């Protein structure tokens, strides 16, 4: 039974769960097939790539072909429990990446349990480094512990009793009496493995403790369980003390066969800031500290030339290149991202908002304050340049980019000494006057750019962050136009792409839906805000994970998975909507 794309074809995205340990992530499907995982870190080559049509998978699947699937995360963790009801009983498989993760070694835990009746499962391990190009070799077994190599990686599988090796993979059938469990532990490393295999019991205990220590209760939100789950996702996608990946995957299509298939396994500055502001609103600070540390380091290193995205350890994002995979249906097999060639002005404004939130909570040190000054200086130097904007399109003088910079200058100015604060406030006023001059639509609302009169859902964010007051006529008119032009069936689209109906050009953008919920709440419409929040938080898969876009008509997830900034927006809106609508001044953190 070859562990390849023919045996384990891709599922619709709503059926995948994600395991993550900060350094890397793995996608697991309803057949117990771990079909995507990169080692040693997020943006390194995949060892399991069957989701993109490649070789490589680690599957624990009921031997009985007649089964139905379910599962759930243990509360506030990324410990997933697969559950299969077969013709003869119920089988569970508890799954996790050992948490917190190690830099060089991934440890994957799988505990199979015969919950009702005897259990019989087929196990297949086919590690294929280099996106499926390097089969396992040097396979050796002793007392149920297998070791092997795949390309530059070292592999050890513990618990594979009576397994056989053939064609570069390990396979066996495991049988358990009712009530018994069996542990499989996979270690994959780019360095020498420790002499002794991992203890399953000890590693499970450490992982449980790690998650319970890291994830708060979020009783100050309107959706504590979902808030905890979103925080666990964000925590699992953040490398300790450093960057957070935008998503765990690459090449998953936003729209089939439209060449909108990108590699999101990198740390976007904007996404770091969104997450930092969300957790600051909840008064939970570890992820805020990580975001501030990462963004400040990039500004201090690169100054006004700060790039929109980096690897999680601050390196350069590789250029886009083909890795030789067929791709997810409708997508592609390309790694890397052309974002490294872009200038995104709004990232500097978002950085200032992040630093202001940290300063307000007394969590900004002197070096990080210097980074804030660098960001403010970069805005002063570069605000007149066209940029790619929030949606990473063609270079224009986007209204959103300049307005969010004004919001950032206002926010950091409130934390600055009087003279410096007055200077930054004056710069914000000038930016707003600049946007008013060339991006005020004849109807009185903001428009996307001087030569683009359409409205854009991104224009909600500057009002949320305090660039202008929500009562300002421009804010009121923009909110009304966004609802009229871009809202359909309780979901929000980014902008009108062309003459087609909105849902025919792309999916609804969940970040924007949560932003609208916050904007309505800010405008003293709490009931409407709650409706938007509930509608958009339902647009997830069975495990509760969000993608970037949602196909409203087909009720399917679209794009890379899971999308961190959607989880951040859900978390922040759950917190904001728990309070009375705020006074004049917006939702600046």
Give a brief description.
The protein is of the alpha+beta class and about 600 residues long.
What features would you highlight for this structure?
about 20% strand; 8-stranded antiparallel beta sheet; elongated; 15 helices; alpha+beta; about 600 residues
Describe the overall structure.
This protein is of the alpha+beta class. The chain is 33% helix and 21% strand. It contains 15 helices and 25 strands. It has helices at residues 129-132, 200-214, 224-236, 269-281, 286-302, 346-360, 366-382, 399-413, 418-439, 460-464, 473-486, 502-505, 510-522, 526-537, 564-576; strands at residues 17-20, 25-28, 33-38, 46-48, 57-62, 67-73, 80-86, 90-97, 105-116, 119-126, 137-142, 145-150, 153-158, 164-166, 169-176, 181-189, 267-268, 309-310, 321-322, 334-335, 487-488, 491-492, 508-509, 549-551, 556-558. Strands 1, 2, 3, 4, 5, 10, 14 and 15 form an eight-stranded antiparallel sheet that branches. The protein has an eight-stranded antiparallel sheet with strand order 6-7-8-9-16-13-12-11, covered by helices on one side. Helix 5 packs across helix 6. It is elongated and about 75 Å long. The mean pLDDT is 96.
Query: Distance between termini?
Result: 54 Å
**What is the β-strand count?**
25
Largest sheet: 8 strands, antiparallel
Determine the number of helices (DSSP H or I, runs of at least 4 residues). Answer: 15
Helical fraction: 25-40%
Q: Which secondary-structure class do the elements indicate? A: alpha+beta
Mean pLDDT: 96
State Rg.
Answer: 24 Å
- Low-confidence region ranges: none
Query: Strand share of the residues?
Result: 15-25%
